[in-house]
Specification:
This protein has six helices and no strands. By secondary structure, it is mainly alpha-helical. The longest helix has 19 residues, at about 15-30. The relative contact order is 0.22. The chain binds zinc ion (2 copies). One zinc ion binds near residues 24, 54, 58, 68 and 72.
């Protein structure tokens, strides 16, 4: 499970849907009382951003004509974890041709800010 936290516009459909499912899995894991310590330690999740990130991804999924039916369940967890968004953008570029194409073209055509995270800019 992994929260990429990069601008959803930079992500291909598969990675967008994948992260979305994984956010539901994070919520499920928390509600089962299973520790997220390894994910937190490895910079794979920011616990206080799960709900906000889910909203962002759903917004982008709907914009792309995808369905979203299951609400994220409620869950409680202390604020933990730190994600390196710039590193994650590089990693998506390396791992996935489709993400890489989006990252390059969005970077060219739109403001530079988009490559930094828009949560940070807010
Ligand atoms: Zn959802
Ligand atoms: Zn991708």
């Amino acid at each position: 499970m992994r929260m990429w936290k990069v601008n959803p516009l930079l992500m291909c459909d598969q990675h967008l849907l994948g992260e979305h499912v994984e956010l539901h899995m994070f919520a499920g894991t928390i509600n089962k009382g299973i520790s997220l310590e390894g994910y937190i330690h490895n910079g794979l999740v920011e616990t206080n951003q799960i709900r906000k990130r889910h909203r962002e991804l759903v917004k982008e999924m709907i914009r792309r004509g995808m369905n979203h039916k299951s609400e994220l369940p409620s869950f409680k967890i202390a604020r933990q974890g730190r994600i390196n968004i710039k590193e994650n953008i590089k990693e998506l570029s390396r791992r996935c041709n489709k993400c890489n194409e989006r990252i390059k073209s969005v970077g060219k055509n739109e403001s530079k800010n988009i490559l930094c995270c828009y949560y940070c800019n807010a």
